[in-house]
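Final paragraph of the annual report: two paired records, presented back to back.
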Amino acid sequence: MAAINRRDVLAGGSLAGAPLLGGAGRKSVTLVLDPADAVAASAPAGMAAQGLQAALTDAGYAVVRAARRGKGLNIVAAGPAAHVRLMAESFTLRRAGDTITISGADARGLSYGLWELTRRLRDQTSTALVLPEVFCDTPINPVRSVMRQFTCEAYDKPWFYDRAMWPAYLAMLASSRFNRLDLAFGLAYDQLAKVRDSYFLFTYPFLLAVPGYSVRVSGLSDAERDRNLDTLRFISEQCVSHGLDFQLGLWMHGYEWPAAKDSNGLGVAMIEGLTPDTHAAYCRDALTLLLKKLPAVSSVGLRIHGESGVKEGSYGFWQEIFKGVAGAGRSIEIDLHAKGVDDAMIGNALATGMPVNISPKYWGEHFGLPYHQASIRDFEMPKQGQVGEGLMTLSEGERSFTRYGYADLLRDDRKYTVRHRIFPGTQHILASTILPVYGAQFGFCGSTGADVMEPLTYRGRRGTATATPRDGYEARKMASAWDWQKYGRWYQSVGRALYNPASVPQGDDLIGDALAQAGRVLPLVTTAYAPSAACDAYTPELYWNQPLVSEPNPNPYGDTAAPKVFNNAQSFDPQLFSSMRECAAEWLGDGGARISPLQVASWLDDIGRDVQAALSRAGKDGSIDDHRLKIDAEIQAELGRFFAAKFRAGVLFAIYEATQDRGVLEAVIGRYESAGAHWGRVVQGAKGVYGDLSCSDMLSERGAWADKDPLIRADLAEITALRAQARIGYDPKLIEMVSAVLGPQTYRAADLSHVPPSGFRPGETVAVAFDTPAEILGVTLWYRHVNQAERWQSLAAAKDGSTWHAAVAADYTNSPYPLQYYAEVQQGPRDRRLYPGFAAWPAPQPYIVLRRLT
């Protein structure tokens, strides 16, 4: 995989132009916002203007705020001209003489223009601000949301009540071009059997008393309850003032949990005065009252599957909740988490007349490569007639495929919107950034954007707060004033990518380059290796080592195929990525077209070198802010090297299991020892910096990197013990195979060209043709509806000269879903390749999508 230069891939946003602000001496600038201009007079524009004024002052300019232009340099902020039509939330920035004019389509658009000028001013490397004559920017995703969760009383109360923090945090989100904050409660637990921290778990009585019901929280004073509501009102109103929609997430509607002791030995707060007979009505009336007291709320997020504490299939209960939203008397979006959702639930929500959104997970509860997985794991595929246990009758039954992807939600005739929710299972402690190409994935098949769980999500979840603060730093000199400030570049990269990938800013940010390279490591690992799709079981960032030899007991990876060992773990996209065991079978057999763990290992090695090169360019000097980011980048590079070595060891171990060859076993041991050495460097890099990083009560998510090292050593010892039973022989083919497995893998693109159809008409045949300049042995067309509940279909293409033809039958296209397809090309006896495959890295959508023509 070639190195990625951020200045090569971050298109647009050029600073090319002529100097406008600069020169010797202190100069005056008139910042013009006409109060008669509704857009310029809006609260979001005013907030952004404050940020620009502060940046100008810091740069040495005397700033005058006025309603009309002054002498000399002017910065004019205004709504659109009468004859100009701009897309919602877009803006233009124009330079003419001594005047900069920022025009916004609306309040948000103008605020983004003001924040853009602020960023350019603060990022300048000379005394003069250089601007193009015209710069325009337009969003591609209507919804760009950050989710912040309250999951731990000890860790989360301080930021919840901090009224100095909220304006700074929201200004950061707005300047990053997010347009929604999703503040979520009730995600601390997904079952109520072992509750140790119940604050805000069943949220309503922590915020208000509902007339007609005697429901309250044990030990919670009326004054604290009222403070909670007042704080939530403040936060929601601040969001609107900063140009962000406010979504209230209410993820738990169960209210009964066994009395227990919390982590401090105190009693867990209990819900009093509520019964099964009054449960639904109370929740309905509480929600209506809450929304009337919080007029800034424009969306309510609901988890409607069994982890909500309510048994799946309880349609009557949720109808009452939906009535509670409608009862507020204004348009409020109902955002349903997709797991377990079905047509009946969606229909009941739509019946309220409120706008309805469904939020499926992107790459399970993790974060993979910048495309939507071609398939979900076998473990999640629907099984006809299956009924889940306990509360999870649907999501672990016939609707199991809704758990970890977009499922069957992307039909073209849908009456609801879809936006994708990104969970923190891949990474939530170490800082990095994402590539701009991710932004385009959240308009997939008409989707409207993303809701991204921010860094540090789940810290202290399920009562696991420790003496280590929420930011994870044992070394307090590494801490920032507010823990989110460490991740400033992450917020910028995500928000700007979601807004418009083509205009993500360029610059000479050497630390940013290192974080961009480091940010490629764990998404690639996640894509290739998924021992569990649950974020509270598997996190490659703080990896609990899955053994190669023996299934562990206890074992956090319950959703791996038996025996639940490393080589049996599937990819998060098994249609396009092979497992360790599958890869070994391909090497021992006729080869395969899928991306192998060995190819992934080579890419991880390349990325590690890219990270190191970027860190070398950044140098060793710098602020404490730079130092902590360099540590995080170095740890991610070593994690990538660890997984690269273990992937190779896994494939070799599968070959050893098939051959019992001693030479192969020695190669396994060598690679696993190398993996252990890289893990040791992770431990050393974190030593004295990070403390306890627990984010749940699952054994795989407790402690820190040093606590995981004994698991690696134990598995290596068990493999070493196999020497006594290995067959000693000399097989030249195996020696050659081991050498090839250990060597670098060069990705080879399919040798063909193809022009996709512009779309398709349901009920008509879709014909595709592939041109092959070289002699090849065959082409197979793989195709499927954009519906993850279905399996892929295949058919052999027919050759006509240098062109291969295939056609999807008319009865298959007669569907409400878009179509997706790719080709598998047999270039030689053991040489199979994918088209389009991953040759277009870092934008590797490895299939083509056709939408229905109207």
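The closing record of the year follows.
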Amino acid sequence: MQQDALAGVGFVFVAKDRLVGIDLDHCRNPETCVIAPWALKIIERTSSYADVSPSGTGVHVIASGDLPRGGRKKDKIEMYCDGRFFTMTGHRVDGTPGEPQERSGVIAELHCEVFGGVPFDVCPLRATAGQLAAGDADLVMAAESELGEGFRALWRGDHSSYPSQSEGDLALCGMLGRITNRDPDAIDRLFRHSGLMRVKWDSRRGKSSYGHITIRKALQESSGDNSDSDSDDTSNTIAQQLVQICEAHNVDLFHDDRQESFATIPIGEHRRTYRLRDHAFRRWLSHEFYKSTGRVASATPLNDACNLLTARATFDAPLRNVYLRIGEHEGATYLDLGDEDGNVVEVTKSGWRVAPRAPIPFRRPPGMRPLPMPIPGGSIRALRPFVNCSDDEWPLILGWLIGGFRVHGPFAILVILGEHGSAKSTLARVLKRLIDPNAADLRTTPIDSRDLMIGASNCWTLAFDNLSYIKQWLSDDLCRLATGGGFTTRSLYTNDEESIFDSTRPQLLNGIEDIIGRSDLNDRSIRIEAPRIPEERRKAEKQFWAEFDEVWPSILGALLDAVSIGLRREPEIQFDSLPRMADFAKWVCACEPGLGLEPGAFMAAYEGNRGAQVDASVESCPAAQATRVFIESEGSFEGTATELLALLSSRLPDPSKPPPSWPKDGTRISKDLRRAAPDLRAVGIEVDFSSKKRPRKINIYRLKIPPYCEMAPPESDHQPRDNDGGPAPVSPRLIPAGAPPPPDSPCSTCANRRFWWKQSETRWTCWMCCEPKSYIDLAVVDVKGAGFLSADGSPS
């Protein structure tokens, strides 16, 4: 179609044309021409002709394929293959093909995801296929049993494993030849019942037809009878020749602990590692076959060769771990620079060096971009002009950054918040490029868990740009990705096989609003407020990145210095009490000297940030915030969840119009309070669900934390004062005899500032974290040195 404005021109869908229309409503801003992320994801996924609707607020996608049975319209998405009329404008979406593309597999997957329909591999044959005769049905059943999933996918019309549908046609004909004793008429008859059947099959090609030429070519390849073959090839099939090419090039086969098969192949003077199912490996093998024979290897022998190589890698080859950007071996950390020469950086306790080859395999997905060659002797301070944050948050930025150079998690999630003009996206790009530059440094919100995990499988550091809201499923998945956790889904075109995604990755999010709503995600996050940049301090983007590129190598060298120091110091780092994300915090503390930070600077900033997030987390949950206000006013509550909901609802400004996320029943408020319980405890409110009586009751009360008192210096007769300035009723013995001075910083786990003396263990213990409390010989102090102990030894 031409890129011209059209009026009154439409497109009618007819089933026999095998064209599917995808109508995406209310997804485009007609003034800014910006397409919503969810719709843009579908457009990129289908990668077919996409036309802006006449209203300018929607997009029409047209692709070739077969539409499964089931739903046709849901929310803003409609899918049709007949009985529908699209008005066309000719205003094609930028970057999309000029004509519909074959997308059977994508259409089936999308339909199943949107409408919850039957997966593609169990969809019925197209209506044009007709019914198989009894004998032919037996042949198809035999092929399914003998040839497995590859045949079933092609029979159903899915050719996504092949470069084009024509290659899929050729492969299916080759398979049909095996079960029909190479009978061309039987192959033609069966093919017409398959999901790949189309009008092109009967189209003329000189004195023959496309179908007959395809059958003849498939039979020639399967027998090795190719008129262009050299005499030496007659004893070997093309698949065997492809395997022999791998052997001649010393291709190294192996598998990982998830039974994924890999091959390390020569590329020029260097070696690259690919999964055997990667298109890059198939392209290399096809190219080597062409160089050695002058002929083109079609899909069938190529698939046969890859299947054999996969079997060898799985059963005859060793098990090895494959790494992405960051790896480890014998106590050393390796950073894959991703350049054409295959250079890596080896970091040990004594320093770092650039090596031409790593002792471990690294995988390089297509989007990976190279890091610069690091320069030794650089300073991390060279990064400061490119980071828009306060001095108090600078240690947090460095902590997240150096955390990304660890091989294993957990990894903190950096959340950058700021208004328009605060350069939060630019800051995200800077940090991403320092660890793991990519063709798409910043990503849009994933549409589902599978999308997120596929991104994690192909990228070391994930950066999501301009998030407005994080759904519950995405919040849970981000938590799993930060601290470790797997995701399983049914393998495509199978009935009962699972695909497993198990990754732990550094993550970075940015947005204008406070996007962290759930306490478990809040627990794993570092929140940064990017201030707005005054107009007089702004720079042109070209100038900014030119200046950054100039110092990038030296900044990377400084980070590698810090990694080396961290490897040396990490075993020495000890915490009195482990903080949240303890392994991450320990690693950053070990790297502090290399980051130019004073000892303890990161933990002080980290604990302060954690305390600020507690209040934000409580406020983000309406039920938790309402409970906090009620308990601070009334002191306590005991009753059922339903009674609590009724009580809190009655205190709303307008009980008939509760907030959008207000719990609708007792079960919901119970879940909200269980999730918010750690944050409520950190602000002095205990939520107790331990009651086993019927009906189940919730006991909510204020923790007995003594008021703040100013404490006299040791051996002084100065009378402590309370918050109102009056004398505090305290015992002269504020600190038990023989006890060391109380802590002078908040609890590293919950940011609480009050501690109590635990006589049985002779140590100061966090008031919030350690339950229950014994009030014998108890002294309660806060980090400012204040203390309180009543005359009878019990707190007031």
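DSSP finds 21 helices and 29 strands in the chain. This concludes the annual technical report; the extension proposal builds directly on these records.
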